């Protein structure tokens, strides 16, 4: 018996292409909810409600379709309509059944994460800077890049952070090597 050996890249995609989904629906699925399997890893719901569908010229090997959707990513609805075109060929979409839509599409308000204003330096760097400056425990200010979907920020003056940032080496791979050492 011959064995099969797969060569090439593997994908994490599960599902069908948008072309396959909207092609089999009445009115091309306008008003229906589609979920991208890649986004199901988040605890908040991510889904797209189809508003408009346009077919694109058939370019082998991928069949693409331009779909205009109301996008909800991680529980936050996008203020503008979004066009999906370049990723429509990926076999990573699934259609929600009508009885599943109401329970799946409940918007959940994510809690805002508040980070401290400053964090400790790594131990060796902290030692070098302490010798240079004479400060016993130097700290570095946190700079956060605010993104479109971000729900985190740096604490204001006098505000209590909700996230604890600690500088440590974590759980060692071989704890016996660190027996008797202070971690």
From TrEMBL:
InterPro entries: Ribosomal_mS34. One of its GO terms (cellular component) is mitochondrion. One of its GO terms (molecular function) is structural constituent of ribosome. This is 28S ribosomal protein S34, mitochondrial. It comes from Anopheles arabiensis (Mosquito). The lineage of its organism: Eukaryota, Metazoa, Ecdysozoa, Arthropoda, Hexapoda.
């Amino acid at each position: 018996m011959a064995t099969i050996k797969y060569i090439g890249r593997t994908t994490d995609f599960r599902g069908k292409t948008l072309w396959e989904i909207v092609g089999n629906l009445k009115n091309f699925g306008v008003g229906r909810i589609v979920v991208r399997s890649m986004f199901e890893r988040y605890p908040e719901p991510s889904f797209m409600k189809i508003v408009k569908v346009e077919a694109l010229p058939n370019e082998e090997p991928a069949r693409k379709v331009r779909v205009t959707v109301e996008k909800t990513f991680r529980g936050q609805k996008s203020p503008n309509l979004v066009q999906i075109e370049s990723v429509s060929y990926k076999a990573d979409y699934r259609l929600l059944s009508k009885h599943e839509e109401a329970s799946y599409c409940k918007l959940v308000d994510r809690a805002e994460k508040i980070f401290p204003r400053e964090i400790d330096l790594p131990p060796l760097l902290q030692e070098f800077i302490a010798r240079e400056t004479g400060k016993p425990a130097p700290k570095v200010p946190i700079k956060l890049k605010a993104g479109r979907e971000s729900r985190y920020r740096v604490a204001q003056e006098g505000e209590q952070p909700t996230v604890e940032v600690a500088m440590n080496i974590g759980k060692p791979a071989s704890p016996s090597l660190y027996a008797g050492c202070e971690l």
